Amino acid sequence: MSHVVNFAVSDWAPRLDAETQASIIDALESGDVVFLPQLEFVLEEKERTLFQSALLGRSKNISFLPAKGELKGTDSIGSERHVLQAMMARFARATADLTSHLLGLYAGELKQARTSFRPVEIVGRQTSWRKDDSRLHVDNFPSSPCGTQRILRVFSNVDPGNHPRHWRVGEPFESVARHYLKTLKAPLPGSSRVLQTLGITKTRRSEYDHYMLQLHDRMKADTAYQQRAGYTDVSFPSGSSWMVFTDHVSHAAMAGQFALEQTFMLPVDAMHTPSQAPLRILEGLMQRRLA
Length: 291
Ligand code: SIN
Ligand code: FE
Fold this sequence. Notes:
This protein is an alpha+beta fold. Helices cover about 30% and strands about 20% of the residues.
C-alpha cells in the first residue's frame, strides 16, 4: 500500500537541509504522498468572494497557464475574472517557490505546467466514468503526451468552509500494471501520427502514453477492481497541502470542495531513481522501450 509521509513545512519558501530534501524526493519517487499539514495557502480578503459565486464554464476545473497567463474554463468576467486569475498566478508562484526549495536537487529540471482551481464539490458531481476522479486511477493526459516526463502535482485545500478533501490512495504502480498487463492492447500502427495530424494530441503520443491512458480507463471502468482493490483513506484538512506523482500513485478524490492544484513535469532521467518511474516499470514488464 502507498504511504503518506508528513513533513513539517509551514512556509512556501522553506529552508531545508539537503538530507530532508533528499528524503522528500525519495518519498515522492517511491510512490508516497508527501503531506504538508501545516502549509496553508492563505487567501486574500478579495479572493474570498470567488468562493461564493458560480465561476465554472462547462469543465470541472478552471485552468491557468502560468507561462502564458492564460485562463480557461470559467465564465467569469470583469474584476471577478481578474481576482481569479491573480489568485491562480499567486498559487503558481507559491508552488514554484516551494518546489525550488523542497526539490532543489532536481536542479532546474522540474517544469511548471498548468494550474487548476477545483471549485465543485466532489460528492454528487455528475460526470462520465472516464472523467470520474472518485474512481481509483493513475494520471495521464489525452491531448498532451508525457513521453519521458513524469507528472508531479501540488495540491492545497483552500475550502473556507473547513471541509477536508478525502482521497483514497491505492496499491503501488507495479501491482496495478501487473494486474492489467495481459489486457493492454498495442496501439494501431500509425495511430499516433493520425492523432497528431488531427490535432487530438499536441505532440506524438508515445506507446507509453497509449498504455497509461489505457490503464487509466481500465481502472476506472472496472467496477470489480474499484470494489476489491486495497486502498488507504486519506483526509487533507482545509489549510493543508500535499505533493504526489499522480502518474504513479493510484488515487481517487472522494469528497471535498475548493482545491488549488499545480502540475509540474519532470524528465524520468532527472529522477534520483529512474527505475521507479511508471515508464521504466512498464518497460521492464513489457521488455522493450516505450518512449
Ligand atoms: C485527481 O487528480 O484525480 C483529482 C484530485 C483532486 O481533485 O483532489
Ligand atoms: Fe487524477
